Amino acid sequence: MSLNQIVLVFVLLFGFNSFISAQNTSVDRKELLKQSKQANKLYRNQDFEKSLLLSREVLKKALLLNDSVLLADSYNTIGSNYNEFSEFDKSIDYYKKALFYANKTLSDTLKFKTNNNLGNLYCFEKGQYKKGIQYYKKAIFYSKKIPNQTYTLLASLNLSWAYFDDSNFDEGLEFLNYSNANFNKYGNQSLSSVYQMINGMYYAHIVDYNRARIHFEKAIALGYEHNELNDVSYAHNEFSKMLFRSGNYKEAYIHLKKFDELKEKLYNEDKLFKASIAGLNLELDEYKRELTKVELIKDAQNQNLRKSKIIVILFVIVLFVLLMLIFTLIRNNIFKRKINRELTVANNDLLLAKEKAEEASQMKSQFVSTISHELRTPLYGVIGITNMLIDEYKDLSKSSHLSSLKFSARYLLSLVNDILQINKIEENRVVLESMTFNISDEIEMIIRSLSFLSQNNKNKIELSVDTNIPEYVIGDKLRFSQIIMNLISNALKFTKNGTVTITATLEKIEGSNNYIGFKVKDTGVGIADVDQDKIFDKFVQVGRNDTDYQGTGLGLSIVKRLLDLFGSDITLESALGEGTTFSFCIPFESDLEKTNELINNIRVDLSTSQIFKVLVVEDNRINQLVTKKIMEKNNYKCYVVDDGYEALKMLEKEIFDIILMDINMPLLNGFETTRLIRNKNIQTPIIALTAFDKEEIAEEALLAGLNDIIIKPFDQSKLFNAMSTLIHHTKNAG
């Protein structure tokens, strides 16, 4: 590096540090606290658009200050907004982030608020009462540390409501009794409507309809008086249920209608639509700022390169070396001609051998691809029909035979994917990608997906994640998940009545790279010393007998090869009868700016009650049945045709919102059908629903005019997200 380059780097670093310091000092914490309260007030006034915009501004500045109180409060407000949009999963994610930062503070009020919000969501939106009640009990724990006893009263009311809503009146009565004893002392106007409604629910349960009516009517009157319209709507709904049970159907209908009218008034579609586009202009300024910084650095580097004399010196040296090489080549040319004649025969033999090897490799890849397609097609039918049986015949959902069938089908699908994965790695067709993700969330999701295997062997899974690990890291999430899933599933197979422990520890930080060490430890049968050197080879299994089930021997081989791509090694410690521990370390990048970008990319995906028409082009009868059932279950109007010609005829008579196209069909395959559709200037989005590997058909699919590719068997949420995105994009473009 030249002197000019060194000076330039120091100037840029100093300037950037000065900019960050100036930015940090310009952030006024008192002003941010004021803005955070204002955002919460806007939310309570149902001005979701402004509340979301202001919360995001506070959040970005709070990240610069690393202020846990502001972060917790902002995430809480954002989560509340998403709750109003009925985006409950996103709301839970933000509430959990709020709880993460609240637990870092000394604020019992923040901890109470976040636990109470999570309790509300899990109980009344997700219907997961057991989980929601746990959060309510934590809220009560923190409320007792707060001087204002109104918080304890609020949590007690919520707990009694949750228990009553879950038909557990015996448990809920304890908290209702507390509320009745303390409401006059600690209650307020905003709680009065809910308090009367819960008493009404209890008396309705014990069939004291007269007292229940009194409480319900008080709840409705107080709600209107204090403008607590959300609480009034719930009171109308519960009152309607009681009237229906008592046989007063006409009055029950009146209150049910009032409940619907209030809900419609509270969740005005125009208000929610404005919130969905909130903040887009804020992102534009951020992008411009980043682009300007990159352009400045690039211009400085270009100017420095033009001025550098080192390039000229290197050019002269290279030219001299080339001249020497030419002279040497000319001198040795005669000698080489003689040697070349002798090598010609040998080279021809090598070329022939190489061609045969390449042909064999190509045939192997084609064979693997064909087999995977032929297996995925019936597996889609098996998995789909299994899910249909569970949905249609609830009594079969607990059948061990049906669970075994579903597990076996998914295991066979996993085997097909493993064979394809090892084939791609050997052919150097795997390139690591960069995605932003949360390590703890990813591992917890894998643990949940393996719950059947852990329960089958009566194992317990424990997870410990170092709190020093950044909330978000950048790396190949898919390959990391494959490594963790293979190691955990392997541990669960070889452990019975034991424990599998997963730990993640931040070992060191170098620049923007965080070196995170992982350990997967089990208390299973262990591995003998003589076998430890060969367990990472393909198709190798050790200690197998006729009574156990240990898979194909591909899992650890895939783990070893994927870790090679990460530039990491895996080690193991094991002894027979004492369990096994696998250890490895992966460097993940951590970038605050990219984390901010993730926050800036908050999108509100508003749901719709509109029924869309979908055309399914599929030649396999079983797959037709499965796909149609999935579509109709998710409120799509589904039409099915057997081949491409039938699809073209149908499109002449009907207009569809989206088309699901099989690729491998007789008469006219999916690519040819799509080309003919596009030639007719039909812009309806088309998704390839196929058993082919995505990488094999991606280029041809793009050229044919397909909009996306989903591999069978598929994750239903992934398919419907893709369908919804394409439908709305097409309608907005039109």
TrEMBL record:
<feature type="transmembrane region" description="Helical">
    <location>
        <begin position="310"/>
        <end position="330"/>
    </location>
</feature>
<feature type="repeat" description="TPR">
    <location>
        <begin position="72"/>
        <end position="105"/>
    </location>
</feature>
<dbReference type="InterPro" id="IPR011990">
    <property type="entry name" value="TPR-like_helical_dom_sf"/>
</dbReference>
<keyword id="KW-0597">Phosphoprotein</keyword>
<dbReference type="InterPro" id="IPR011006">
    <property type="entry name" value="CheY-like_superfamily"/>
</dbReference>
<keyword id="KW-0812">Transmembrane</keyword>
<dbReference type="Pfam" id="PF02518">
    <property type="entry name" value="HATPase_c"/>
</dbReference>
<keyword id="KW-1133">Transmembrane helix</keyword>
<keyword id="KW-0902">Two-component regulatory system</keyword>
<feature type="coiled-coil region">
    <location>
        <begin position="277"/>
        <end position="304"/>
    </location>
</feature>
<feature type="domain" description="Histidine kinase">
    <location>
        <begin position="370"/>
        <end position="590"/>
    </location>
</feature>
<protein>
    <recommendedName>
        <fullName>histidine kinase</fullName>
        <ecNumber>2.7.13.3</ecNumber>
    </recommendedName>
</protein>
<keyword id="KW-0472">Membrane</keyword>
<feature type="modified residue" description="4-aspartylphosphate">
    <location>
        <position position="662"/>
    </location>
</feature>
<dbReference type="InterPro" id="IPR003661">
    <property type="entry name" value="HisK_dim/P_dom"/>
</dbReference>
<dbReference type="InterPro" id="IPR005467">
    <property type="entry name" value="His_kinase_dom"/>
</dbReference>
<dbReference type="Pfam" id="PF00512">
    <property type="entry name" value="HisKA"/>
</dbReference>
<dbReference type="InterPro" id="IPR036890">
    <property type="entry name" value="HATPase_C_sf"/>
</dbReference>
<feature type="domain" description="Response regulatory">
    <location>
        <begin position="613"/>
        <end position="727"/>
    </location>
</feature>
<dbReference type="InterPro" id="IPR036097">
    <property type="entry name" value="HisK_dim/P_sf"/>
</dbReference>
<dbReference type="InterPro" id="IPR003594">
    <property type="entry name" value="HATPase_dom"/>
</dbReference>
<dbReference type="InterPro" id="IPR004358">
    <property type="entry name" value="Sig_transdc_His_kin-like_C"/>
</dbReference>
<dbReference type="Pfam" id="PF00072">
    <property type="entry name" value="Response_reg"/>
</dbReference>
<keyword id="KW-0175">Coiled coil</keyword>
<dbReference type="InterPro" id="IPR019734">
    <property type="entry name" value="TPR_rpt"/>
</dbReference>
<dbReference type="Pfam" id="PF13181">
    <property type="entry name" value="TPR_8"/>
</dbReference>
<dbReference type="InterPro" id="IPR001789">
    <property type="entry name" value="Sig_transdc_resp-reg_receiver"/>
</dbReference>
<keyword id="KW-0802">TPR repeat</keyword>
